[in-house]
Amino acid sequence: MRTLKVELDQRSYPIHIGPNLLDQAELVLPTLSQKKVAIVTNTTVGPLYLERLKNALEKSKVAAISIILPDGEQYKNWETLNLIYDSLLENRCERNTAIIALGGGVIGDIAGFAAATYQRGVPFIQVPTTLLAQVDSSVGGKTAINHPLGKNMIGAFYQPKLVLADINTLDTLPERELKAGIAEVIKYGLIRDLPFFEWLELNIGKLLERNPEALGYAISRSCENKAEVVARDERESGERALLNLGHTFGHAIENAMGYGNWLHGEAVAAGTVLAARLSLFMGMLTEPDLARILALFEKAGLPTRSPEIGTERYIQLMELDKKVEDGKMRFVLLEKIGKARVRSDVPKEALSRTLESHG
Amino acid sequence: MRTLKVELDQRSYPIHIGPNLLDQAELVLPTLSQKKVAIVTNTTVGPLYLERLKNALEKSKVAAISIILPDGEQYKNWETLNLIYDSLLENRCERNTAIIALGGGVIGDIAGFAAATYQRGVPFIQVPTTLLAQVDSSVGGKTAINHPLGKNMIGAFYQPKLVLADINTLDTLPERELKAGIAEVIKYGLIRDLPFFEWLELNIGKLLERNPEALGYAISRSCENKAEVVARDERESGERALLNLGHTFGHAIENAMGYGNWLHGEAVAAGTVLAARLSLFMGMLTEPDLARILALFEKAGLPTRSPEIGTERYIQLMELDKKVEDGKMRFVLLEKIGKARVRSDVPKEALSRTLESHG
User: Between chains, do A94 and B325 touch, taking CB under 8 Å as contact?
Assistant: First the structure.
């Protein structure tokens, strides 16, 4: 087991990464202020891992209530959130009853937002079971639900007390979701870690084969990168925005195609290629670097062509993004592989040309 | 104009109290990071004060969009909250667009929760227009909406950047609401400020006549008390709970009678009398002190008898309160006038006897 730490003063917390952590209730116990927890999971992950986690907790005399949600990004909304609140209230959960998110990014985001807002905030624990959640969404305290007019528009910064990434849960992850998670892994290499990008070029095959050592390394290295950025800029007033490489384009793709039809990681992959292309048009990235980026996404089996939803519609959807400031769109662009930068001076023509290229 | 400060490190903020502050946009300008704001108000307060505030802002080149909600505690819910989100998104409000709450406690609570959660948090300004909001709910960062199973069950701690209490707005406040606000004013005397309680015994008539000097003093003294408590215990892990004197009973009354039928302050008055009676039964408060408390509430024209909703139902509703810890109900009780204490060892019989006394 590897343990990292997100350094945020009194709100610092550990990330444990390793095999069979689901059975190790002793990792959870120190964070509980009450022998009762509420586990939020979904209809896909629940049947696989809920009993194991509950049993481990119950052996340590921790009572667990379960809240099982429908599976999918299209359920990351008010209605589903209210199912959580209803259940917490019906089961008399209190201010010191911890909420545990057992699942992927959607479960982490919605359960985290429920934890941030139920009784004005209860303790929260992340048990991510997808690669995407283990390398990205479970770390850093972003929680949210979607609004019909935009993804993650309603949410809170709310840090967990603990992240428990059990690598073995990736064994049951559908291949498409594994690949989607790899998109966020590649992102860390692109924005701030050239040696990791180079490692990925050499080892992407091992990740796709789910080699445990390779997965463990990639998850730890990703979390290290994320933890460093979050520690320096928790609320995204600066550097943290770089983690959104490909996300402004990606969110537009997800929204236009209907949440859940493109997986988040797939949209981020296609969106990152657009961001790289735009970086090239802006005179930042070189052609050979763009080619390397395309090649790595392709080796990972990720989409590099964005869907045809029309330039106007793309721009409309991107203008709804949270990164808009004083009416100006801000883009995370690449200076080179391993170095990203925010630019708010992108000419409309460069943007249109990028969107028309589809990657 | 009096100016106080809530001391919370980087999140410290001023409270300005005085006449005609609505016209003084220069008090607001330093807190804005963008020349655009969204004003949330209701159908009662909007026609009275919205144009004045908008005009003052527009003279300083600040564009203001308006979001006008139906008036009443019964609208402090998901549906109304979503009206705010819809409007913020339709009007392209961004992460640095401030939300201004112009109204009473309900508007402050729901607009504050919208500010806490829209795009994971935008700047928030309180412009309270009721006595209750000026002395209590606008200060301290508690935001929330109600759930069918309990009041303020969904919310966040989210501090405003500024509180602007324009005393003249109380001129149009219905008498019933003025009295309801006085309930929270009396609370500060009861829990931690005996000299203020004594001042109230002498000056309650002036408050009811809306004497501006008396109102200004009572509001400042209340805010001073609240600011001190909040600075020491922002998230209610200890001392702040004392501010909930009468609220566990009060919330049960509000819920049982249907939100909006009893005003919050009215329920708090009747609830405080119950808490005082329980304090007597617990051997804490004396009979003469109880009589003084009853007399002051009566002079203020506030209800001192709680409604007949049945002991069982009271207990059921109180068990839903956020102050329950490890299944035990916690009560804010009075040792004497000017000193409150949390007790979690109240015997069932003392509680039943209190509830059956109705005050």
Answer: yes
For the residues B200-208, what does the mean pLDDT come to?
Answer: 98
Stated pTM of the model: 0.93
In the CATH hierarchy, which fold is given to the domain comprising A176-357?
Answer: Dehydroquinate synthase-like, alpha domain (1.20.1090)
Separation in Å, CA A159 to CA A329, A344, B237, B242: 28, 29, 18, 27
Q: A-side interface with B, Cβ within 8 Å? A: 34, 78, 82, 85-86, 89-90, 92, 94-96, 113, 116-121, 142-144, 147, 149-150, 152-157, 235, 319-320, 322, 324-327
The mean pLDDT value for A96-114 works out to 97
Compare all CA atoms of chain B with the CA of A91 and give the residue at the minimum distance: B320
Question: What topology does CATH give the domain B175-357?
Answer: Dehydroquinate synthase-like, alpha domain (1.20.1090)
Q: For B209-225, what is each residue's pLDDT tens digit?
A: 999 999 999 999 999 99
Give the whole-angstrom CA distance, residue B354 versus residue B359. 7
Q: Which has the higher per-residue pLDDT, A358 or A12?
A: A12
Q: Where in chain B is the domain with CATH 1.20.1090.10?
A: 175-357
User: Which of B96, B144, B155 shows the shortest C-beta gap to A325?
Assistant: B96
Q: What's the one-letter identity of residue B44?
A: T
A194 contact partners, CB below 8 Å, separation of at least 6: A337, A338, A339
In CATH, what number does A2-172 get?
Answer: 3.40.50.1970
Q: So what's the pLDDT on residue B327?
A: 78
Residues of A in contact with B85 (CB under 8 A): 147, 153-154
Delimit the CATH 3.40.50.1970 region(s) of chain B.
Answer: 2-172
Question: What was the ipTM of the complex prediction?
Answer: 0.92
Residue among A346, A271, A263 nearest A314 (CA): A271
Mean pLDDT score, B38-61: 98
Q: For residue B302, give both structure tokens.
A: 């506030």
Region(s) of chain A under CATH 1.20.1090.10: 176-357
Instruction: For residue A53, give the 3-state DSSP assignment.
Output: helix
Joined together, the tokens standing for residue A249 give 């384009």
Contacts of A145 (CB under 8 A, 6+ apart): A76, A77, A78, A80, A81, A109, A110, A113, A152, A154, A155
Closest Cα of chain A to B301: distance in Å?
32
Work out the burial of residue B316: count CB atoms within 10 Å of its CB; fewer than 13 is exposed, 13-18 middle, 19 or more buried: middle
Whether A103 and A45 have beta carbons less than 8 Å apart is answered as yes
Residue-wise pLDDT for B13-37, tens only, equals: 999 999 999 999 999 999 999 999 9
Is A226 designated active site? Answer: yes
Q: Count Cα atoms within 13 angstroms, Cβ side, for A126.
A: 37
Distance CA B257, CA B254 (A): 5
